[in-house]
Amino acid sequence: MDLHHQHDWNLTPEEAIALQQSLQQAVITLDQFQSIDTVAGVDVGFEDAGHTTRAAVAVLSFPGLQLQEQTIARRPTTFPYIPGLLSFREVPAVLDALEKLHILPDLLLCDGQGTAHPRRFGIACHLGLLTNIPSIGVAKSLLVGNHADILDEKGAWQPLQHKGETIGAALRTRPKTKPLYISPGHRVSLETAIDYVLRCTTKYRLPETTRFAHKLASETPASELEKLEKKQAMATPLESEQLNLF
DNA sequence: GCGACAG
DNA sequence: ATCTTGTCGC
């Protein structure tokens, strides 16, 4: 992929933090996109006791939410899990999976935080910036910040705040369940992020995009992996020029 | 120094 | 995230 913000991945935690602070300056939390016809769910799982990273991308039509395409990529795990540095562990594999797509998704729903991060640069921001695809962070638990109690009805939400600023929202996507933490990744405002997450959510707590991607990243048997590999190789994969055209 | 800590 | 069975509640 010909990325506008390419960079080395062989970094120490200290270098990774410095890079986040640098790249964060380029993040845009305003709506900057045209029509959204496809939404992709991105998720990552691990095999071999964590030695292998498996990334999955599921592209759904929008607003119909019908599966259009799915890809999987596996590669050796090279970075440990460190709170605040998740993207350095998962993004390389995700980029591999995105390169296999034939359809360029209009929006990315990522597993994890966007701006709801100590340095305002969660995995959704990192992926959005590298691919230049509008992105949203959809996390199942909190990394940083606080919020008031949320009404127990779908759609209810409260701003997530940290050090005096609103960094995201705690959103109830289903009654009687824990909220989801939504935040802008890149080129999407918080209000719009909440709207899209709700429009991708049907009867479950997690959006359909995330559910499809998670199924691929964690529940797909190795036996069915080769079947997917063939489908992925059938047509011409997304060319780098198609990604990043501002 | 102590506790918290996406996946 | 992953290792793992049954089980409590709407």
From TrEMBL:
Cofactor(s) it depends on: Mg(2+)
Q: Does the record bear Ribosomal protein in its keywords?
A: no
Judging by the UniProt lineage, the source's domain of life is Bacteria
Gene Ontology annotations for the cellular component aspect, listed alphabetically = cytoplasm
Single GO term (MF): single-stranded RNA binding
Q: Name one GO biological process term.
A: DNA repair
- InterPro entries referenced in this protein's UniProt entry, alphabetically: Endonuclease-V
Transmembrane annotation, as ranges: none
Instruction: Keywords in alphabetical order, please.
Output: Cytoplasm, DNA damage, DNA repair, Endonuclease, Hydrolase, Magnesium, Metal-binding, Nuclease
Compartments where located: Cytoplasm
Q: Where is this region: Disordered?
A: 223-246
Is this entry keyworded Cell inner membrane? no
Report residues binding Mg(2+).
D43, D111
Query: For this protein, what is the EC number?
Result: 3.1.21.7
Q: Which Pfam families match?
A: Endonuclease_5
* Residues at the site labelled Interaction with target DNA: Y81
Any coiled-coil ranges, and where? Answer: none
Q: What is the predominant subcellular site recorded for this chain?
A: cytoplasm
Q: Which reaction is this enzyme known to catalyze? A: Endonucleolytic cleavage at apurinic or apyrimidinic sites to products with a 5'-phosphate
Q: What the protein does?
A: DNA repair enzyme involved in the repair of deaminated bases. Selectively cleaves double-stranded DNA at the second phosphodiester bond 3' to a deoxyinosine leaving behind the intact lesion on the nicked DNA.
**Which family is it part of?**
Belongs to the endonuclease V family.
- What name does this protein carry? Endonuclease V
Q: Which gene encodes it?
A: nfi
